[in-house]
Write a structure and sequence with these properties.
This protein is of the alpha+beta class and about 200 residues long. It has five helices and eight strands, in the order E-E-H-H-E-E-E-H-E-H-E-E-H. The protein has an eight-stranded mixed β-sheet with strand order 1-2-3-4-5-6-8-7, with helices on both faces.
């Protein structure tokens, strides 16, 4: 059996810990998504309460079939699960992956949580998996996500027009960003600086 490029791993930081998603996280994921009614943002993929189970099943299926690695985001101070993120579109042959399907409960948005999550995920991708590029993708209309990705130090690669058909029948234009391995030392220093400012 061929080894997976991305194996399950727990990533621990000062503020948060990223743990591999499991069935046992269902109730906590439902509760986190309810904070801010995040599923009402039409351009995101946050699960509404009545579809959380299907969302979790799909995430675990993609982990098994496609090599994704979904995580829950746990606040170290309280042990609460406050969101989810994942490695996805994993391309081990070309040492690339995407960090995506990321969302957080409203109460932890605009805190150190996202910055530290990205620092943990990028550090593992570049320094343990030896990736040569890490992508981020978001909906054209998700201005907050686009600003947050650029703030990490990622550069915009381009826009994929009519990239996806969404459940409501609309078409998604996807904005693609990336950080490449040669840029990682500076991006890492920048993320560490941002974290220090929030302490």
């Amino acid at each position: 059996m061929t080894a997976r490029f991305v194996e399950p791993v727990t990533l621990r930081g000062t503020h948060v810990t990223l743990e591999p998603l499991s069935r046992e996280h269902l109730a906590a994921i439902r509760s986190a998504a309810a904070d801010g009614d995040l599923w009402n943002l039409w351009y995101t993929s946050v699960p509404p309460p009545d579809r959380t189970d299907a969302w979790l099943t799909t995430a675990l299926d993609l982990c098994e079939r496609e090599g994704d690695l979904p995580f829950v985001v746990v606040l170290n101070a309280t042990g609460e699960i406050v969101g989810s993120t994942r490695y996805m579109h994993v391309d081990g042959k070309n040492r690339r992956l995407e960090i995506g399907s990321t969302w957080y409960a409203k109460r932890v948005q605009r805190t150190a949580v996202n910055t530290e999550c990205k620092l943990l995920l990028l550090t593992h991708a570049f320094e343990a998996l030896r990736c040569i590029a890490v992508e981020f993708r978001t909906h054209w209309f998700n201005q907050a996500s686009r600003a947050a990705i650029a703030r990490l130090g990622a550069k915009q690669d381009g826009i994929l027009r009519n990239h996806q058909l969404l459940p409501d029948g609309s078409r998604r234009d996807t904005v693609v960003f990336s950080i490449i391995d040669g840029e990682w030392p500076a991006a890492k220093r920048h993320l560490q600086y941002l974290l220090e400012r929030t302490r």
